[in-house]
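Morning run. Coffee first, then this:
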Amino acid sequence: MPATLGELRTSGWVSRPVHEEIRRNAAARIAAGDPLVDGVLGFGSTVLPQLEHALLAGHDVILLGERGQAKTRIARSLVTLLDEWAPAVAGSEIRDDPERPVSRFARDLLASNGDATPITWVHRSERYAEKLATPDTSIADLIGEVDPIKVAEGRYLSEELTVHFGLLPRANRGIFALNELPDLAERIQVGLLNVLEERDVQVRGFAIRLPVDVMLVATANPEDYTNRGRIITPLKDRFGAQIRTHYPPDAETELGIVRQEARPHLAALDLAGVVVPRLEVPDFMEEIVACISQLARQSPHLNQRSGVSVRLSISNYETLAASAIARSLRLGEGDAAPRIADLGSLVASTQGKVEIEALEEGREERILQGLVSAAVLAVFRDRVRPEPLASVVSSFGAGTVVHAGDDLPASAYQDAFSSVPALQGPVMALAGSENPAVVASAVELVLEGLHLTKRLNKDAAGAKASYRGRGG
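And here it is:
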């Protein structure tokens, strides 16, 4: 790569503003049929087209939505739309464009060295900066302030070189993301007005105007939820686009996100001298996890303004799998698969991610249990054919009891086929596998579904349960 300004100019490199750089790369992706951002599911016909339009128009963007709607992920993904490498004046704190320097340091260096000015190359991963807006954020944090150390070194207060640049100038020629923008004090938001309109920053006490080249991306929760602040109208007016995000529209999309995010965290354990269980999460158990979140977003008992994050589904999936692995480790089994008995472990991963509208003693647990039962019933009705179930119910004669629970190994569920032979057909059709751990999981779902449809009685104590006929 060229190491001096002269070499850079002879190489044919063309200086472009960051919005134009992103615009060109976004257009190339669209033309090639490639996704604009990676790893974001469920936004293909809603959010991403709006984002395409905003980027092609060269706009700064606000992403508005409840928690857990991939706003930060989208902002971070935009860095892939920058050129992989960009030249900058060597030694510049704000990555000055060699052809359009804005800092005093870079201007002086070019004036004295000309074409011999040293050039450094910056990877696009270094051209992204992010700040979580908090009420204590100051103008000095974002814009800059006098550096007392530089003054102590002998510089005058009136010199531009005494300024310590804030996050925004240091994001020059890159992307600056500001998360939870309404939490930023209104007087600090005023400091961003010039950045978005005049494209410069002004440092207090100095007649300095730095025409920074930056794309600003902000994220925010709806104002009616946060109640901690608001985006001032003049600032909101200066953003070119406000894009509303949303939760996955269906369980299938939610499940795709869960599999993408959770599975890397559930890699096989490596324990010397210990039987390490092989984890297999049946499709129907995955669907239950996704269905819980989908039902939670429709529940009148939960605060829908705060939202139900996709992180709920991810945490529940990981917790469910962890519960199955823990049981298999205790029992020394070679295979692990989550069962209905493991759903009780989801209380810990659900509490804190949902807000109950009116909380009274014991109400939170009842509401969460109701969501789990409704999800199990929905998946049972969707997955299990009703025709064979009449034979299963009639097979529960007087005194017939089938035990289930997290204390039973998978092999124990074979006894259920001996006492209730009709159970084997729907169970094997649901399991789709001869893996004993998956078969045990299918047995529990069929039995629990029959209980929830009021065709079997159930006696439960913690994670243990006994199923018997209605007349038993």
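The chain has two domains: 5-244, 251-469. Good start to the day.
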